[in-house]
Amino acid sequence: MKDRSPRLLKTSLLINAAFSLTSGLACLVFADILSPWTAIPSWILYSLGVGLLLFAADVALTATRTPINPLFAKIIIGADIAWVMASVGVLIFFGSLLTLPGQLLIELVAIAVAVLATVQAVGLRQMRDVAQLTV
Predict the structure, then answer these.
(1) What is the pTM of this model?
(2) Is the Cβ–Cβ distance between 87 and 110 less than 8 Å?
(3) Percentage of residues of the chain with pLDDT beyond 90
(4) Looking at the record's lineage, which domain of life comes first (predicted)?
(5) With 0-12 CB in 10 A as exposed, 13-18 as middle and 19+ as buried, what is 89?
(6) Cα separation values, 30 from 34, 56, 130, Å
(7) CA 105 to chain centre
(8) What does the alpha-carbon distance between residue 104 and residue 40 come to, in Å, rounded to a whole number?
């Protein structure tokens, strides 16, 4: 079967997996250091860490399939969009409880995730366009 998965989708998913893995490990390993610096309770950082490691594994598994399953890619993009929306909600409703570095960290991660979601969506569209050309 011919590989119909454009490189952009695969590459952006792998970057997403690496970013999620790194973030998850940072939350787990440095939770006790990050907590006072951000005012995010350690238990939330530990929970985020575990969730991010599971998400990273799922994204990596999706990215390494040939062809990439479009439904799984859409679910990952949806999860990224949900992360960005949740980050906005946290900043609106709980931002005053966080330190300035905590607020900035949440904003920077949300921006990175939004960029990844956008690039993944473009890659998914390219994959669909290539599939239509080969049919």
Answers:
(1) 0.91
(2) yes
(3) 89
(4) Bacteria
(5) exposed
(6) 6, 18, 43
(7) 14
(8) 12
